Amino acid sequence: QRLKAAVHYTVGCLSQEVAEDKEIQFSKQSIAAISEITFRQ
Amino acid sequence: ETVNKILHLHFRDDKTKISSDALLLMAEMLKVFVREAAARGARQAQAEDLDRVDIEHVEKVLPQLLLDF
Amino acid sequence: ENWCLTSEEFEEWSRIYKLKESDGVKEPILPQSHFETLENMEEIAASQAEDAHKLSLSEWRLWQNRPFPTHLVDHSARCFHFIDVMEMIELMRHEEGDCSYELEIQPYLNMNDI
Fold first, then answer.
1. Given a cut of 60, is residue C43 above it in pLDDT?
2. Which of A5, B22, C3, C64 could share a disulfide with C108, CB 3.0–4.6 Å?
3. What residues form the membrane-spanning segments (chain A) (predicted)?
């Protein structure tokens, strides 16, 4: 769970960069989905 | 270090080692993966004239994303 | 040559099921994938004919949160991951505001791990 939390936090930061670049927002659920996919990947 | 620990979660043999180059590459690949997932989600949302990426936008791009990586 | 069919079976297929020009079925194509983060690396091939039937990998996504029966060849590990994430998305679909995933793992966040 600790590793997952670290991935989730990092995914949040990276997604925030994309959000600023694309001038769009990400819902928490979409960040969670990307985080889970990344952890499995 | 976090990527290292995650990889070791999945190694069948505890004695398996990974070089720092391989680790760096894996960490970089994961960053590219995250940025690509987020960017595709954003494109999907913008294609639907929305200014917020929601979970179904990620759902729609997921199959192709997994095929591409 | 006959796809392991007997000549009778092949003749029946040809008569009943074989798609003909007159059926007006368009050429099914899978749209070319496009990498957002590698933008200038490749241009989408203009050659993707307009009248082609563009297949969609997410058309039947509502069914993709469970493994369907297989015969001889099982689903791949990657496929099972895909199914699990689709199931997770299905469970989170109607959440507003707070995110159960985040709330569940937040207590484990240790900034030294970042």
1. no
2. A5
3. none
